[in-house]
Amino acid sequence: MTDLSDSSTASGRTSQTPAGKPGPRLPFGGILLVVAYVALLCSPLVVAGLMRPRTQQSFLWELGKSFALVGVVVLVLQFVLAARLRGTTRHFGLDAVLRFHRGMAILAVVLIALHPVLLALGGGGWSLLTSVRMPWYIWLGKTALLLLVIQALAALLRRTVRLSFETWRGLHNQALVILALVLLHSWVAGTDLRHRPMQALWLGLFTAAVSIYAYHKLCVPWQGRRRAYRVSDVQRETHNTWSLTLKPPQGTHRFPFLPGQFHFVSLYRGDRYDGEEHPFTISSGPLEHNVLRSTIKASGDFTSTVGNTRPGDRVRVQGPFGRFSHLLHPEETDLVFIAGGIGITPLMSMLRYMRDTDADLRVLLLYGNRTEEDIVFGEELEAMARLPASRLKVVHVLSNAALGWDGERGYIDQECILRHCGEEVSRKAFYICGPPPMMDLVSRALRSLGVPADGLHSERFSL
Ligand SMILES: Cc1cc2nc3c(=O)[nH]c(=O)nc-3n(C[C@H](O)[C@H](O)[C@H](O)COP(=O)(O)OP(=O)(O)OC[C@H]3O[C@@H](n4cnc5c(N)ncnc54)[C@H](O)[C@@H]3O)c2cc1C
To answer: Nearest C-alpha to atom 48 of ligand 1 is from which residue?
Structure first.
């Protein structure tokens, strides 16, 4: 079958169902990417090593120059990592790629910040850092470093200083300015850049970064607008949750996806284009005919307006992404799904797919909510469990249950899991999705019950 894990197709045109179970991915592609990444990081050092004439400069001075060269390549490659390219995300999953992107951003800041310090220590003198009488290209370098540090602090402290996601993203989008400043600074100030091979490498890397940025920020959205989906149905699921059903343009097929995957969605409501792109799980099953559905809980600026969406509104869609799908682990047959609140959506897509394919899998669903009114898909889950051949058992756990509730109360903790999974808990495969505190609690409980790391799969609703 086509490999659907983490692709970035704006609109698929062929088959719309997973046609069979994919096996685990061969690691070659992933290893190749890691090797290519490391090779690119080392490339300026190799070129500089071959080109640099013997100098009388100190070791620290040379180290400072090398840190800058590698730091700049890390920066350039950040554009590739952030562009949601199928070639990168399919091997590791978008969330892992973005985690790596964040880690490498810190490395880039450290390397680039150490560059002037090492030059100063290596013979340049502290005036390099403190003097204001500097050539313009040194000021460009200093400005780039300052912007880079601001970006890194904004990313690290976003939640602590309550920076809105939109403000953070606006700031993050200035990355191209930093790149331009870095290019100019290094081109004029860098002695290594006087050699043709290094110039060719630099131009190649910077052109690639700008092209990939343009592809990600302009081409993909433009394609998505041209092939915009339409909202065909808006259904209220609970007091604060809605399902939007989306249809591809007339005569085309929606992209194929695996149950549990997600897509990015931007809405044009009436004349208004929100512009905001948000990730949502595709809660429908892959066998539902030519539609994509997302079930969205009002939890912030954008999501609390989802109920205002109307049939006919246009939607830009990009997907599918993600590797949170039982189809990627065909060896697992005894599954426990643990959902908290709206975290039910990817698990629901998997359950719908199992129902539609009469899958012979044992599934226990532990579904935590505050009250009975918060349960999404309650009736459909009951109906699924009642099907004659069904091996699904649903257990609702309410933390703030009304007096008459005779089900589980409290939180999904170690005791609750043991009560329902029994002694064989460590032989089962777990799929967890919910609020971060709940996921942390459950993961810790499962690890202490002896569940191995490869039996734990989870999806966090934050990228
Ligand atoms: C893989 C994945 C699957 C998801 N599936 C669902 C789902 O099925 N149903 C559902 O209700 N929610 C889902 N979410 C969460 C949903 O994306 C956020 O709740 C929503 O984007 C919040 O936007 P807001 O403006 O309403 O909230 P805000 O209060 O503005 O933001 C709350 C938090 O959501 C995140 N966020 C906000 N805007 C964006 C954005 N444009 N892109 C990425 N993250 C953003 C940020 O971490 C932010 O701090 C999913 C998230 C991810 C990452």
So the answer is: 165
Residue-wise pLDDT for 107-161, tens only, equals 999 999 999 999 999 988 888 888 888 899 999 999 999 999 999 999 889 888 8
Residue with CA nearest ligand 1 atom 31: 300
Is the CB of 436 within 6 Å of ligand 1? no
> pTM score > 0.85 for this model?
yes
What's the CA-to-centroid distance between 239 and ligand 1, angstroms? 19
Report pLDDT for 272.
67
Phi-psi region of 6 (alpha: psi -120 to 50; beta: other; left: phi over 0): left
Q: Which domains does the chain have, with CATH numbers?
A: 52-223 (1.20.120), 229-321 (2.40.30.10), 332-459 (3.40.50.80)
Cβ contact 80:88 at 8 Å: yes
Q: How far is the CA of 279 from the centre of ligand 1 (A)?
A: 6
Q: At what angle do helices 94-119 and 59-82 cross, to 10 degrees?
A: 160
Tokens describing residue 216: 């990600």
Average pLDDT on 167-179 reads: 89
Bridging pattern class, strands 362-369 and 456-459: unpaired
- Inform me whether the pLDDT recorded for 15 exceeds 50: no
CA 134 to chain centre: 41
How many Å lie between the centroid of ligand 1 and the Cα of residue 36?
32
Q: Is the CB of 426 under 6 A from ligand 1?
A: no
Q: How far apart, in Å, are the Cα atoms of 413 and each of 37, 392, 404?
A: 41, 20, 22
Residue 19 CA, ligand 1 centroid: distance in Å: 30
Q: How confident is the model at residue 164 (pLDDT cuts 50, 70, 90)?
A: confident
Cβ of residue 302 lying under 6 Å from some atom of ligand 1: yes
**Spatial CA neighbour of 407 closest among 446, 366, 364, 441:** 366
- What's residue 330's pLDDT? 94
Q: Evaluate: CB of 461 within 6 angstroms of ligand 1.
A: yes
Query: Could you tell me the distance, in angstroms and rounded to a whole number, from the CA of residue 67 to the centre of ligand 1?
Result: 36
Whether 166 is in the pocket of ligand 1, judged by its Cβ within 6 Å, is no
